[in-house]
Structures are given as C-alpha cells and as structure tokens.
Amino acid sequence: MSRLLISQGRILDPASGYDEIGDVAIADGRIVDLGSSIGDFSPERTIDAKGLWVIPGLIDLSARLREPGATRKADIASEARAAAAAGITTLVMPPDTQPVIDMASVVDLIQHRAEGANAARVVPLGALTQGLLGEHLAGAAALAAAGCPALSDGGQPVQDTLVLRRALEYAKTFGLPCLLTPLDTHLAQGCLNEGATATRLGLPGVPVAAETAGLGRQLPVAEVSGARVHFGRLSSEAGVRLLDQAKQHHPELSADVAIHQLFLTEQDAVGYDTRFHVQPPLRSIFDRQALRQALKAGTIGIICSDHQPHEPDAKEGPFANTAAGASGLDTLLSLILRLVEEEVIDLLPALATVTSKPAELLGLESGRLAAGAVADIAVIDPHQPWWCTPKALKSRGKNSPFLGWELNGRALWTFVGGRPVHTASADR
Amino acid sequence: MSVQLDEQGRLQHFLTTEGLSSTLLTQILDTAESFFGVIDKSVKKVPLLRGRTVINLFFESSTRTRTTFELAAKRLSADVLNVDVGTTTVKGESLLDMLQNLQAMQADMFVIRHSASGAAEFFASHVNPGVAVLNAGDGWHAHPTQAMLDAFTIRRHKGDFEPLRIAIVGDIRHSRVARSQIHAFNGLGAGEVRVVAPATLLPTDIESLGVQVYTDLSAGLRDADVVIALRLQRERMQGALLPSEAEYFRHYGLTESRLSSAKPDAIVMHPGPINRGVEIDSALADGPRSVILEQVTNGIAVRMAVMAMVLGTQAEAAGDSA
C-alpha cells in the first residue's frame, strides 16, 4: 500500500486535544507519525494541505442507506460515495432495513456491497430483537462475530420492558452497547411538535411527553440490566433534563442528537414544506436552545446526520401523508463547523461529536489522529463556501431541509484506511 | 399562508381565513351580500364566470358543501365538473399526477376537499398560473368558506362583530371549521371567541389562536350572542377520546335549558350535518333560535362571492401580463 504524506495542514485531533500545523505520515493504511517535526519518511505521494485542516474522518452514528430493501430511495454505494465526498469515513447503519439486520448473512451482504463501493466504511448495527418486533432476542453473538459493534432498536422501541431487559442483558454478555430510541410510540401519533404551530396547521402533534415517557420507561430498565445504553435522537429540553439526572448516577449513559434539531424548529414547517417532516419532529425554539446547551455541557456527546434519503415522490404531497426523514450526509460537516461559528461549541469538542465520541461508543479504531491509528482522514477547507442545492447534494436523497442555505466547509480529500476515496482537488 | 394572496394582496386562491385583513374579510361578506339578491330572483344566474370551468375535486364525501359549491358556480354561469375520488381510488396515482391530468382539461378553478391538512396549499402551489384553488376543507386545518358563510349569517343577524361573544362547542381538536371560524371571527374583530369542549377534544395551545377556553358548557355559554355546535364524528367514539355519545350529550349537548345562560336573543348555528341528540337537541335545532338552514342558503352567496373574487384576480393578473 502507498506511503502518503499530508503536509503542513492544521492537524486537529479531538481525542487528544492536539491542534498544530504539521505533517501526517501514512503507510499501510495507518498513521505512522504526525506532528510539526516528524521523523524520516519517504512518501510516494505528498498532499499539500497548507491552509487546510486535517481531521479524523467523520463517523456518522445514524445513516439510513436504504439497502437492502428500499433501493428506489438510495443504495449503499450511492450513499457511501456521498459520505466520502462529505468527509465522512464511517456510516453507522441502523438495522431497520428489509430484511432487518438480525442475522449474520444480512451483515455480510451489506459489507460486501460497501466494499464494492470503495468509499466510506459501512458499519451495520444489529437488531436487538428478531425482525425488530420486540418479541424474541436476535442472535447477538453471531451479529457481533459478523461485525456489528452494537445493537439497536432501529427506531422501533421494544414495547415489552421484560423483553427489553433481557435483550440488554444478553447484549451486555457479548460486550455490545445498545442504542435505544427514547420514544413512547402510543403518544407519538403525529408529524410535528405538539403545540401552537401544529394546532394552527391542523397537524397531529407528537408531545415532548412521547420522548420523556420513553426515557422514563427505558432508563430504569437500562439501569437494572447493567448494559451500556445510548439514546438516539434526543429532541427536547425535558428529555435532556431527564438524561442529565440519570447521568449523575450513571455517567456512562450517552445520547446523540440529529444535526437538524440544532438548527431548525417547528416554525420551519409552517408552509407545510415536507422537507421539515422528520421524526422525532422539529420542536420549539426553547428545545433547540436546550439541545445546543446540552451539547456544550456534554450531556449530549454525539451528533449524527440522521440521514434518511427519499425519492422525490415520497416527499411530494400534503405534510402528514409524506415520509418522515431528511437527507443529511452532504451537510453534516458544514453544519458542525457552523455550530462552532455560531459559538455553540468549541472546535475540538464539536469535531469530537462526529469522530472520537461515536468511535468510543462503538469501540471503533478510527475517529482519531495518532501514531498507529487507522488512517481514516478528511482534509477539509473549512472556509470554502457552497450553496446547498439539489445538484450540489451527492446523496441520492435530495430531501435536505437545508436547501437554499449557504454553507462553509468542504472535504477536499477523504482517506479510508489510507486509501483516497474522495478527491475534490480538481474543483479547487 | 401568503400563497393565497397575489402581490397586490388580492385573493388568488382561497385556502384559509388565517392572516386575512378585516378589509378583505369584510369585502367577501359585502360581495356575498350583493349576490344574495341574485339567489332570490326567479332567474338565478349572472354571467360572471361564463365559459369558465370549475372542477369540484372531493377526496372526502360531502353533500352540502359540494352541492352549494356547484350551485354557486352554476349561478355564476360556469361549467361545473364533479369528480368524486374515494381515497382508495387514488392509490397508484399520486395527487400531483391527478392534478396535472385534470389541469390538462383546461380547468380554471379547483374546489378541493381532502383529508390531509395542507392539501389545498399543496394543490395551490402546484397549479398552473391562472388556475385558482378553493379549499373546501383540508384535514383539521381549514374550511374557509364555511367560516365565511357562518360570519355572513352572524352579520345578517347581529350586525357588527365587535360586541359579540361567540361560543364554539364541540370537537375543536379535529375541526377545520372551528379553526377557520376562530381566524375569521377574530379577523372581523369579534369581541370574544370561546371554545367549549372536554379536554380530549381541545388541541394543545388552542388559546394561542386567540380564544377563551372553557370545559364547562354553561360557563362557556354565559352571555353568548352566538352559539355554534360542531359535528361530533361518530368515529371519535372508537378511540379513547370520549366514553359514550350519551355522556357527551349530557355534558356538552346543546339543549334549550342549557342555553339559558346565553343571551335571550342568542342564535344557534351548526355547520351540518347534525347528529341529533349527540351535539344538539332536535327541539333546539328546529326551534326559533336556530339559523342552521339559513347557513346552507347563505353558503351559496358566500361561495359565489369567493369564486367571483378569486377568478376576478386571476383574470386581471392574466390581463396585466398580456
């Protein structure tokens, strides 16, 4: 494998707090040395990163790739390539595919397709229960052996608390963290935050209580099981408060937020624009503020794109009749940088939310820049402006709620295991 | 929603009463008043929309609303086509495909009823320039011509809105009629708009629309000038919203005696169709205070007014650009 030198970039490693101009030397897929004065290294190829930032490739903790089962929306190859072009080197995929990721053979299929794409890595999460039906335990050991670093309820909370308890205990047996969706589905029969806006629009609302009731049920079960539990897609101030209280006794509990929740609110849906139809729904401006504060305080440690690409037809129609979800891969990096710009969070902690933190949760080798680490790296121009237009989106899902925004920051090179999977230098 | 107004602030579609100025709302009522005479004549036609095609596109069944829209269009001399689309037949063809096919038939106006909130906005934002959309009810969101015919009926009986207390009783949560009434009455400067319902039938933060909220019927009716009962859909009994029709009638059904806390000259309204003995007692519905049948008649004049105004705007816009 080639020997690569990324020269004179600003090296940012959130795991160690390292932030210096220097060189990164890569050989055989790993970083062999980095810093302002590295030892003798004879590269076969040198990339001039002067004025650019060298960061760990992003790890997106929740991205639907729609394969297998819904390839009219997107597929593994299309989304893995879109990810690579956006500086994302690992896509973590929830198990709610068709078929569900509850058997090693599905994991194998996904990995095979991902390898063929020669782009971002794809990490499938195993289902907590067979078919995500919440009845029988899935074969956690087999899933782990096939390459699933964690199990997930795939957005469909396990209703029976006893089944949930056993599933968490069984996952713990094999050292697998569990990603849960904090949701009471009975209360969640709607498509927008319950409140004045939904009432005006005549749309059925999802109350914040759907999230807190879900958390209130899952937190004690998580505690009694002793499993490593992570809550996905927090959306509300009350949810953050509950988690914060629980973390005082169980600091290992963690949570993530979808990036769009940090920028958008229920108000954005006032024109019935279906791009703002997401689950959990966009909430109030106070919730958004609380989520931003939780990020700063560290209650929420991870940000994901919650990428859910759709074909145009799925988003065409009256709001409630359309599919929920937003396309998010293309905008993730720029929006992370925008959080820093808006002084929501400092640069290194911001980068940690999409690199070292998700890596730590899943026990991945990537997500950091250090001698010996796997060379999943993005070289980015943090200031390069771009218009978010359907054409600019590399994902097959053009359903971005940020269409029309002017964003800053693009990945110019993306490396996975030292291999270039994206080069935008021609565009420069 | 500004999509219904053109750059000069004129109605080019009629989708909601929300956000309309009192001037525009009053203009609708005044125009309806001018058409009211037409209805009384033996030859009940004016040639305003001669040669124009109106398509009634109803994804939900309706008798009253569709018929009065049809009558209104015919009295304006338009050609009317009724398309009844059961929700099941829509399967396979998207709303957009259907719209484009019907547009290819050179329609000038669509009157649309659909079970999804925002459906009328969706159509309005996808029709060709020069084609108007009238909302005949979209989900829980809006039913603006119903609200305007109610306002018209109230004005004919009570005159100025400013001193009026108007109480809307019943299933506010699922009611597009209530939402449109609230916006229309507030826009016309009503003194007080109240909603009266059990908490299960009140949407969250309904106060934010500018209403006083009551869960007790007699308190809600106290000194009211206008009492509007809403239809209670039978299917609401299936879920966990209400225990029984009988219990609902006992606490929220309108009867002569419960109306005693309202003003002696209070009028009683209902958008129809009535569930007798559920939301309103027969004696009251058929009694002297009831203006329910008047509402139906007034619906024709109001719908004529809105059709004329909207197609007038569209025609002028076409003239402007020519």
UniProtKB/TrEMBL annotation, chain A:
Residues 287-421 form the Amidohydrolase-related domain. It comes from the Bacteria. Its EC number is 3.5.2.3. Pfam families: Amidohydro_1, DHOase. GO terms for biological process: purine nucleobase catabolic process; pyrimidine nucleotide biosynthetic process. Keywords: Hydrolase, Pyrimidine biosynthesis. One of its GO terms (molecular function) is dihydroorotase activity. GO terms for cellular component: cytoplasm. Residues 54-236 form the Dihydroorotase catalytic domain. It is an enzyme of class 3 (hydrolase). SUPFAM superfamilies: Composite domain of metallo-dependent hydrolases, Metallo-dependent hydrolases. Coiled coil: none annotated. NCBIfam families: PRK07627.1, pyrC_multi. PANTHER family: ALLANTOINASE. This is Dihydroorotase. It comes from Spiribacter salilacus.
UniProtKB/TrEMBL annotation, chain B:
Its EC number is 2.1.3.2. The lineage of its organism: Bacteria, Pseudomonadati, Pseudomonadota, Gammaproteobacteria, Chromatiales. Catalyzes the condensation of carbamoyl phosphate and aspartate to form carbamoyl aspartate and inorganic phosphate, the committed step in the de novo pyrimidine nucleotide biosynthesis pathway. Heterododecamer (2C3:3R2) of six catalytic PyrB chains organized as two trimers (C3), and six regulatory PyrI chains organized as three dimers (R2). PANTHER family: ASPARTATE CARBAMOYLTRANSFERASE, ORNITHINE CARBAMOYLTRANSFERASE, MITOCHONDRIAL. GO terms for molecular function: amino acid binding; aspartate carbamoyltransferase activity. Pathway: Pyrimidine metabolism; UMP biosynthesis via de novo pathway; (S)-dihydroorotate from bicarbonate: step 2/3. Belongs to the aspartate/ornithine carbamoyltransferase superfamily. ATCase family. The keyword Protease does not apply. Residues 12-155 form the Aspartate/ornithine carbamoyltransferase carbamoyl-P binding domain. This is Aspartate carbamoyltransferase. GO terms for biological process: 'de novo' pyrimidine nucleobase biosynthetic process; 'de novo' UMP biosynthetic process; amino acid metabolic process. Carbamoyl phosphate binds at R64, T65, R113, H143, Q146, G272, P273. Keywords: Pyrimidine biosynthesis, Transferase. It catalyses: carbamoyl phosphate + L-aspartate = N-carbamoyl-L-aspartate + phosphate + H(+). It is an enzyme of class 2 (transferase). GO terms for cellular component: cytosol. Residues 164-309 form the Aspartate/ornithine carbamoyltransferase Asp/Orn-binding domain. The keyword Transferase applies. L-aspartate binds at K91, R176, R231.
